[in-house]
Amino acid sequence: MTITSSTDPVPIQLSAEDFDRLAAGDTGPGVIRQLIAIEHSRRLALLLATLKAAAENPFSAGPLPSAERTWDSLEEIQAQAPDAVAAVLLHPPVGRWLAHLMRRHHGGTGGRTPAHIDFGQLNTLALAASAIAGLPHRTRVPLRAGRVSIPRFGMAEFADCPPWDLADAWTTGGVIHLRHGAVTVEASGTTDTPGWAGLRSVTATADGLTLTVFVDDLDPWRDVADPIDPVRLSPAEFATWERLLQEAWTLLVTHHRPAAEGLAAGFTSLVPLPAEHDGDTRSASSGEAFGTILCSLPPDAVTLAVALAHEFRHIKLDGLMHLVELSEGAGIPCLYAPWRDDPRPAGGLLQGIYAFHGIAGFWRSQRRVPGHPRPSLPDFEYAYSRAQTRHAIRIVLADGVLTPWGRRFVERLAASMDDWSDDDLDPEAAELAALVTDSHRAGWLIRHRHPHPDRVAALAEAWREGTEPGPGAPGADVRPDPAMRRWSGARLGLARCRLVAPDQYAEAHRTGWGARLSTADLRLFAGDATSAVRLFTADLAADPESADAWTGLGLALRRSGDTAAGTVLLQHPDLVSALHRELAGAAEPAELAGWLARILPGGPA
Known about the structure:
This protein is an alpha+beta fold. Among the domains are: 329-425, no CATH class; 431-599, no CATH class. It is built from 22 helices and 14 strands. It has helices at residues 16-24, 29-56, 67-80, 82-89, 92-105, 115-119, 121-133, 235-255, 257-266, 301-321, 346-366, 376-399, 404-415, 427-448, 453-465, 489-500, 519-525, 529-542, 547-560, 563-571, 573-582, 589-599; strands at 137-144, 147-150, 154-157, 164-172, 175-180, 183-186, 196-198, 200-206, 209-215, 269-273, 283-284, 292-296, 449-451, 476-478. The protein has a five-stranded mixed beta sheet with strand order 8-9-10-12-11. A hairpin with a 2-residue loop joins strand 8 and strand 9 (209-215). The longest helix has 28 residues, at 29-56. It is elongated. The chain starts with 15 loop residues before the first helix and ends in a 6-residue tail after the last helix. This is HEXXH motif domain-containing protein.
């Protein structure tokens, strides 16, 4: 098989065997190096597009050397030191800058930044490449608020500058110098000196396998959005990251060696993110910054390790999708993704499937590691992420928006999970994972899916008349509710609390993260489904519009023995609640769900 991207300057090939290995998640350094080659070729294409865009924009150079002149310099460096140019071009923030520049050129983004400031970043690439190669070079570089970031080196900063300005720059003997007015700054490695902040890195080693990553708190293009200011880590903060990375690396190498080998080959930059207010660890990656993982400070090495495994899956899939289309266009946000509270397009769902397959695989191995203080928690995380991945695979295969290569990718991914059902799990952990999985699916349906009004009216009339409604499925449309993007954390937190801190379980609804929980939730997750039915019914009597009470009642009914009514409430909560509203509360929720279970075509779907 040969997959060729028409936008690449040179053809890039990926064998069918490597494609299938990538799909199954079993990727060694060799495949990662192929993805890096794909990214390098793509960046060269973007660089050529930048040269063309600069020629079409009369303001692209301003007082700076023209893009054409800088391109000539890069060609001269390339002829003598191609690895130096490749190293700079593959620096992750360079990809973000190129993508931003292309969007700006094609009208996809605005801003007040002068064109020569954005285009002038090209000059920093030539400056960095010449320094790596040890070649002399002289240019001028743009300043944003007195700052300029040099790829792979760090950031110079000059005081008393206007928002947009320039600095002279040159290299001698591999050392970068920058001058603004009477002030000259020397790029003195990773050491912070007046006017210079060096780009620091961390090296972690375990069992003969080494990971070296930049810890980027400087580059304006390190984030997934527009340029941002530097947020320099203090020595103590940097030391904390260094310790956590070493601990996480030791864990990955020891217990997740294949994942570690891939990370060692392709993970090149860590971007620290601000802490979340709720204490959760946040992580992200960007398809335009191959090799970068953004992450807020995690509480421990295990959390960091799973975040790295998760985000590197996104990085790998982004690299593959730069080579071959896996879905037919972006699609509209109408699909259920078990890890998101809002509807997703097909492309986003595919990304999540691959990432959560990696998370499930991590916990499948991690649960076998002895010494966890709460051994049932890894079982829960594995069961939960496994269920999420399988559910999403069924959805994306049925949706019909995959290309032939996309379908092959998902089918190979699904096949890699064939024997996962044979794994023995802690019973309580498995039940809690099922509760959270079912709760999220039903919660998404009741918030984003809306039954057709005429069908609801016909059902209401049949209920009042005591007759059988006419045939027909309960048609519905997905209409995303922008206000419902974050609503599911409480029950997930409750399940984890049950396993990790059972002594705090009874007070979970009094915490910040558990404010949405009711007494009924606590009874249900403690295994008392009968009491939960009664309490959720009372909650609905007090607030018939409570989405959590409707889904909670479905969970409780199914686990208390009323399987038919509970299943209808979990699979059609939007219909049951809409019918209850149409009847002005004249029917008991459980009775109404039981009635629908008898009349829906084929019973509960």
